[in-house]
Amino acid sequence: MASGLTPQHTLRGWLLNALGEMGGSAPTARTLKHMEKRYGASLSSEDHEGTERDKEPKWHNRTRFERKKMERAGLLVPARESRGVWTLTEAGWHEFRLAQDTNAASRVSAGAEASPSLAFPRIPKGDESPSRAKETTQRIVRSGAVADYVKRVHDYSCQVCGTRLATPTGAYAEAAHIQALGRPHDGPDVAANVLCLCPNHHVLFDFGMLTISDNLTVTDRSSGASQGRLREIPEHRIDRQYLAYHRAHHCGPEPRGGVAGPGS
Ligand SMILES: [Zn+2]
């Protein structure tokens, strides 16, 4: 049984994970309930004690406090805009994914299947419109399958630069959603909306510093210079509508030349 108050940074990790698992947003009560279901066993009797002012458990108030800090850090949509629905921003989704990847890496090093099998993976069905209210486990399994497929089919090599990071537990790459999953983007969790990227290009892409035209020219937005072409393979076609969404989101309406490249 845990003792003492759960540290703030732990609550932060739980909150981030809970929101990610619930599809990126949920009202306060549902978020707290999900956290309790997930992590209740780790909460101490002190966490459950009611505060003097109201009778709410301390860990509720301390999670609310953490929510505010995460809002200031840009990880959550400001409460007044989201009307009390706790909602991950794109930066919040990025942090969630990083945590997921870290967890996956440590699971692998703990002895699970270390390297991908040689059998060619089959394309997973994915989910055209991932529900914001689906059950936790379902969602994780599904998004994991799409991300895994894209990474494996590219043999963990970045589609922009070709980098393949070798680690003691196998190659490492990140699955980047082109049209972000969270609100307000509501992109689908399907392979055609995912890229296999190295961590650097993932960050640059999420912040809109890299854009990709319909003919797959990669442009560095800070210099306007072309970075070559994105690698596309027959087993993993990228739906151009998501690239267009990404460009429009970060660069404004097209066409204006310079950013999107010819043909788009
Ligand atoms: Zn790269």
Please give a structural write-up.
- With 264 residues, the protein is α+β, with helices and mostly antiparallel strands.
- The chain folds into 2 domains: 8-87; 128-251, no CATH class.
- It has 9 helices and 9 strands.
- It has helices spanning 8-21, 28-39, 45-48, 58-72, 79-82, 90-109, 136-153, 199-206, 240-251, and strands at residues 25-27, 85-87, 165-167, 170-172, 174-177, 194-197, 210-212, 217-220, 226-229.
- The strands form 4 sheets. It has a 3-stranded antiparallel beta sheet.
- The longest helix is centred in the middle third of the chain and has 20 residues, at 90-109.
- It starts with 7 loop residues before the first helix and ends in a 13-residue tail after the last helix.
- Mean pLDDT is 82; it is low at 108-118, 134-142 and 256-264.
- The structure holds zinc ion (ZN).
| Number of domain modules | 2
Small-molecule binders here are: zinc ion
Q: Which overall shape is indicated by the principal axes computed on the Cα atoms? A: elongated
Q: What is the residue-mean pLDDT, rounded to a whole number?
A: 82
Number of strands: 9
